[in-house]
Amino acid sequence: MVSQCRQMLGFSLGIIGFLGSIVICALPMWRVTAFIGANIVTAQVIWEGLWMNCVTQSTGQMQCKIYDSLLALQQDLQAARALVVIAIIVGVFAILLSISGGKCTNFIEDEASKAKVALASGVIFIIAGVLVLVPVCWTANTVIRDFYNPLLTNAQRRASVAMASVGLQILGSVLAFLGWVGGILTCALPMWRVTAFIGNNIVTSQTMWEGIWLSCVVQSTGQMQCKVYDSMLALTSDLQAARALTVVSVVVGVAGLFMAFAGGKCTNFMADEAGKARASVAAGVVLMVSGVLCLVPVSWTASSIIHDFYNPLLNDAQRRELGGALYVGWGSGLLLLLGGALLCTSCPPKKGKRSASTLRYHSMKIPKPSSQSDSVPSHKPPTPRSLTPTKTYI
């Protein structure tokens, strides 16, 4: 059961990574315009991707153009095209192999051959991941190196810091959402405790599942009968606490996701950038609390199961093993913690510095000379203090 759950978790993570590689291959936001120095024209933003570049106007209109020539691209983008496409193809083969070698499928009858195929699919998944990481890191290194290149003008620089901040926020929100969905599954699934077939308890015609809301009996014929608990007080203390904590975790997760959505850099619910950053940090803290509330009952129940399993006063028929819902709960809690931590990286701008979106310019009125003799002033007018920030990111 443990091996099967780990295999399903690895397959799910591989599918998520495969979908992510398709997204990064298609999105044109590999490089974005850097607003620094005198480059304060924010009427348009330039995006550069693997296949096209896009110009987004301040009015919201966007125009994209596919590259005319592959050779006109920089070396890092040329290599990124090939490596990302190869990673997607390799990922397809890894998915097919993992399905063939899965313990829940019957494509291969021999268990030893299944294990070898599953191992091969894992190695291919790792290769696909490396093929994705290489072009992404190469392009990021090129962007950072060009950013600090004194031979380039400010208009030629591209920013990866701002894009990385948006990417971390989106990644944190996605991971937190997956963890929240996993928390709902953990709360609903009845597989918190499963029958342990040890010693003389070798009757495998039926399997018992015990959850926090109901218990189920699965027959060897495939039929399943479930029954809701008549009394909450009849449950053990760990399952009673699990009921409350998992429900609270789901509710707190909903609040955290709403706060993350409101404080997202891609949304317009809040105009103030500092307010957005504070909302994002608060959402991260709330989601981390939700993750802890999910991990506590799962770990408590697992500890109780392990303690009872090695209790010499219990007979073999009374012993239970860790169910699949516990592994889902552990994974969900970790995803919520990781997603919340990524959202907490959105730091508000320092006081006294205004972003490019809130920058205001004031015209300076110079009085006209009263006569021709006064046309040449004896002293220079005071130079207005420049409002252009040294570095500004969007």
Automatic annotation (TrEMBL):
GO terms for molecular function: structural molecule activity. Its main location: other. It holds the Pfam family PMP22_Claudin. It comes from the Eukaryota. It is a multi-pass membrane protein. It is found in: Cell junction, Tight junction; Cell membrane. The chain crosses the membrane at residues 9-30, 36-56, 77-99, 119-140, 161-185, 241-261, 281-302, 322-344. InterPro entries: Claudin (IPR006187), Claudin_CS (IPR017974), PMP22/EMP/MP20/Claudin (IPR004031). PROSITE patterns: CLAUDIN. Residues 385-394 have a biased composition (Polar residues). Keywords: Cell junction, Cell membrane, Membrane, Tight junction, Transmembrane, Transmembrane helix. Residues 352-394 are annotated as: Disordered. This is Claudin-like protein ZF-A89. Signal peptide: none annotated. GO terms for cellular component: bicellular tight junction; plasma membrane. It comes from Clupea harengus (Atlantic herring). Belongs to the claudin family. The lineage of its organism: Eukaryota, Metazoa, Chordata, Craniata, Vertebrata.
